[in-house]
Amino acid sequence: MKRIYILLVGFLSLSIFSCKDFLDETPTNSGDSEIAVRTPADAKVIVNGLMRNMTHFNYYGRNFIMYGDAKGGDLTISSQGRGLDAFYTFNHGVSTNNYSSFWSHIYFCIMQTNSLLESIDKAEEAGPVAGFDIYKGQALTARAMMYFDLVRLYGKSYDDDKTSFGVPLVTNTLSSTDQPLRASVEANYAQIISDLTTAAPLLPKTITNGYINYYANLALQSRVYLYMEDYANALKAAEDVINSKLYSPYTNEGWVDSWRNQFGSESIFELGVFPGEGDLGTGSLGFYLRRAAHGSTSALGWFMASDSFLQRLGQDPSDVRWGIMSYDETSTTRQGSLYKYSGSTTLVGDQKATQTAVNIKVIRLSEVYLIAAEAALSIDKVKAASYLNLIRKRSPGLAPATAETVTEDMILDERSRELFGEGHRFFDMIRLNKTITFNDEFGDLTIPHREKSISRSFYKTRLPISQTEINANPGLEAQQNEGY
Predict the structure, then answer these.
(1) Which domains occur in the chain, in start order?
(2) What's the whole-model pTM score?
(3) Tens-digit pLDDT profile for residues 377-431
(4) What span, in angstroms and rounded, lies between the C-alpha atoms of 92 and 84?
(5) What are the CB-based long-range contacts (under 8 Å, 24+) for 109-112?
(6) Residues with Cβ within 8 Å of residue 414, at least 6 apart in sequence
(7) d(CA 12, CA 312)
């Protein structure tokens, strides 16, 4: 952590005071980060930079979402050597394919939020200034999301062993000699909930496109409580979002076109990606999920839907979600390529100058309905079936769920169909202690680093702490994840 922190000091200054085309304002005093935040306008500049950094390819811009689907059994590969293969093959080691960029980049974003929060505190101590609350609430909520993502990458599931190692908790700026060690999974989740509940009353209850509002905070709370199996609180938070009526579900007729639009009626938290600012081009999610050579010879057909996912979606040939799928390189009839991040199967993007600068829909109302359904399953099965059916209706050929037929597996299947390509499947399977079976039959793949089927007992379902990080912070060596 010492090495990362030293790098962060310079990087943080650059992130806060650069990107002039992206940021609308200039901090009051860009020469001194200690006093740079004097007004809410200054804080807004830093929040803008934080949102931009969350769209980096090492985070929501690509790798974090790809990790969640490539490792979860709903995606497969037809050939190795095209990129991010280790996600699918679980070829992770302490020194190779450790994907330490998750650790370093997310902690960089956390350092940015910590610096902002401390700067706001200093500005408020100097005298009363109205208008800081929203930025404090957004920073706290963003930090909660980052810790939630980190603990899912490096720690065990909350119900598996919450006393086991999670990730280091850093809630203040560090000195060059600080070397924080890993806290427990339980401590990580306690900090996440503390940040979220502290932030919620500071946030606006209006739509704030591209930024975190009160309902994005509640939606994240519902997601976190679900992972903790605190179903009462998960249901309460989800229903508060639903009952606000600020968001509305897409109709069956509008679902496919929703992917070619920014900030639709379901979008609770959506990260903006703009040409020249975060547009990853040939390294974007759209490129990684479309078929080989579609629109560009640089499109290599990295990942495609697995047989098991296509069978699940194929339970209803009239499912509206087929509209965002197209054929893959293996066959003109196999609809294995996903086009959510291309806007459409004809690559229209989402109304920007480039087809690859497509926003990332981090939390949608559909997910909140499915959280409510799962949370209600042990509380009120009538309610669970009702919430599930609001999404299940996208498969008009399937019978609606009832209180007698609704099950955890039915809800999990619906999460797979609805949230395909949005980074949830692996984490869902691990938290629910399901077996993941991989579709290794394409291209005569040899997968020596995992079995065809795995469960959360497989040690490589957690990433290793990299050797570089251990060299910088030797205390982490004794806290390495088992097996590495």
Answers:
(1) 2-273+364-479 (1.25.40.390)
(2) 0.93
(3) 999 999 999 999 999 999 999 999 999 999 999 999 999 999 999 999 999 999 9
(4) 11
(5) 109/50, 109/53, 109/54, 109/59, 109/142, 109/146, 110/143, 110/146, 110/147, 110/170, 111/5, 111/8, 111/12, 111/170, 111/173, 111/174, 112/12, 112/15, 112/16, 112/46, 112/49, 112/50, 112/53
(6) 370, 373, 388, 391, 392
(7) 45
